[in-house]
Structures are given as C-alpha cells and as structure tokens.
Amino acid sequence: xxxxxxxxxxxxxxxxxxxxxxxxxxxxxxxxxxxxxxxxxxxxxxxxxxxxxxxxxxxxxxxxxxxxxxxxxxxxxxxxxxxxxxxxxxxxxxxxxxxxxxxxxxxxxxxxxxxxxxxxxxxxxxxxxxxxxxxxxxxxxxxxxxxxxxxxxxxxxxxxxxxxxxxxxxxxxxxxxxxxxxxxxxxxxxxxxxxxxxxxxxxxxxxxxxxxxxxxxxxxxxxxxxxxxxxxxxxxxxxxxxxxxxxxxxxxxxxxxxxxxxxxxxxxxxxxxxxxxxxxxxxxxxxx
Length: 288
Prior knowledge:
By secondary structure, the protein is mainly beta. The protein has helices at residues 10-18, 271-275, and strands spanning 27-28, 50-56, 64-70, 73-75, 91-101, 104-116, 122-135, 145-148, 162-171, 174-181, 184-191, 202-211, 225-240, 243-248, 255-259, 265-268, 279-284.
C-alpha cells in the first residue's frame, strides 16, 4: 500500500488540535511511502554507563512508537552483587521505548524490579519486569521524574512472556503509555511539557543492561547476560491524510546504536523481520 504525505493538511491540524483519544481508529499498513520523510542519521554518539542497543528514528513528524516483544531471560554475574542491597546485583536489565521532543527526553517501558510478596513485604531481590516512566526536566520548569507502576502482581511480567508496549502523544504535553500481555495490563498518561502535537521529535526502542550508579561513566566489566529478547514487530505513529497511522519501523527508518561496542550484542533478523521492525537479540557483558 502506498500513501503519500504532503505535510499537515487542514484536516490533520484539526485532528491534532483536538488530540488523540483511546477510540481513535488506527490506519495499519504493511509498508508505506511518505513524501518528504526525513531520513535518520547514519550514526549517533553513545552515552556511557550501560550496555544497550538503541534503534532511534529521524527527527520528524512522529507521534509515538509501539512494539510487541517476548521478554528476555536473565543470567546475572554472581561477582556483581550490590553490597548495600542484599540479594540484588549491580546490573539491571531493561527493555523500553521513549522519545525526545522539545529538548525533553523520555524513557518508558520495563525494568527488572523488586516486587511485593504475598505476605505484603517488598522482596529483597529483583524478581520481575515492572513498568517505569522517566522524563528529564524541561525549560518550562517541569521537573525530572522517575516512577514505577505500583508494586502489585497485576503489573509484574516475567521472562518468556509476550507483551505489547505503546507510547503515543495524545495531546499537547501528554503521552499515553500502555503495556499489556499475559492477561495483564498497565496504562498511564504522563505529563511531558516538551511534547507537542504540531512539532517534530524522535522515538526509540532500547534493550539494555543498566548499571547501578554508573550513569555517564565507562561500563563496568560484567558477565551478566540478557538472552533471547524477540521483537515481533515495531511501528512508529504518524498522522497521514488525517488518520493516525502505524508506520513500520524498518531498517531505513532508524539509526542503529550498539553501545559501547557491537561485540556485546548478538542480533538476528531476516529481511522479512527487518521490514517489520522485528529481530531477536541477546546482550552479554563478556561479549560474543
């Protein structure tokens, strides 16, 4: 299917002014051509502090991103224990979406977290993937914030479970995050002053081994592995001819980043998978 986009029409502007509600019908395509689409950069610099694979779009009229993924299995390095938090490690796997708009960054998705046990006590160990939402501060005065979904079994997901995550700009200064799968669902609208419907921005998909207290520093050596995450598909959101449309996040629509170096990642994808924003991948701090 070929759809041409010639900029924001009056109809589109009208829709954007009203915002995007939950009942907005998506226009879904297997492939799409967009006139005057901005191409992604060939490369971007890595930010130190974690082992991560990031796919990031061009800076264009995108409204969000969504993807379906099988959560990975984790093998922790027994030497990388957190001496101040019994039962925890200094490596923390995460898999998330996010974006950058109006000089404000978001990271929104799933991180390996503690849980509330049946007896009401919070576990010492991290035991499940749990939703999180993070934004940086904004020049409007809006403060940076990090928050988790409630520590409730309704919001715990586990390795091997398939989930769908979506992050979409639904109104000026407001994004909606939804994660659902394995009979569970979490949904939250999140205030982000830099995110405006009539402006441009970029969106991303990330698989990572974050490291406690290491942000902005060279990665610490580790044998931790995050194995066999499988992205079934990934799409960007865009308003085209007045319709909110899913645009395949294919190879030509993203900058590929493997930080700090490609040797720590094992990525497999067929041509068919690449055209749908799909792949399987593993991360190892010891390399492959």
